[in-house]
Amino acid sequence: LNYSIKLEVECLFQFLEALHLSQVYLIGHSLGGWIGASYALQYSHQVCGLVLLSPEGVQAPGKERSWWCQRCLVESPRITYGILRSLRPLAQLWGGQKIIEQALQQQQQLLSSPAACQLLFQRRYSEIQGELLLDNLDWLKVPSLILQGCTDTPEAIARSQIYAQEAPQAQLQMIERVGNNLPEALPKVVARHIDEFVSTQIERDGGIGGWMG
Prior knowledge:
Strands 4-3-2-1-5 form a 5-stranded parallel beta sheet, with helices on both faces. It has 2 domains: about 5-60 and about 130-210, Alpha/Beta hydrolase fold, catalytic domain (Rossmann fold, 3-Layer(aba) Sandwich); about 65-120, no CATH class. With about 210 residues, the protein is α/β, with parallel strands linked by helices. It is built from 10 helices and 5 strands. Strand 1 (about 25-30), helix 2 (about 30-40) and strand 2 form a beta-alpha-beta unit.
């Protein structure tokens, strides 16, 4: 199966059709945020609002190198893992042990989701670039809440800032003391922000058909 954001959007459309949900709020984390925003661009009449947690889907200027490094982590995982492990003793000498450990942790996180790896790294670069949203975010006119951990990577923070700056009705909420595991680390905080956002929109618009996470 050749994964793509377009395919994921169409699968979500069919799923919501099967549930007979004509209007929803979409909540997405990381890759799910990219899919949710893409869905809202294509089916804006169905989406009352978006909550995006550290969303993918845009490329921060000057961060192409980071993408290629992440791709190396998942394309030949055994080789990369062996190289990183062998560098540990040397890294201790020049104070780079933290960088090695972060790379190993990131590799483990990426490999735990094969579908996400294929969507983000294991397609032609031109295919991925063709589905990025930066040029379309000014058309994302549904109310959107962007939640972002303050100690996440600079690339992730930059992506959330781009969403907030380019989407007309987006607001960015930075969450203290959390990095790239925002939903797992602070579920109650995330739930509170979602509840406040949705409640505000319901009061303004008078109700919705449902919500999807």
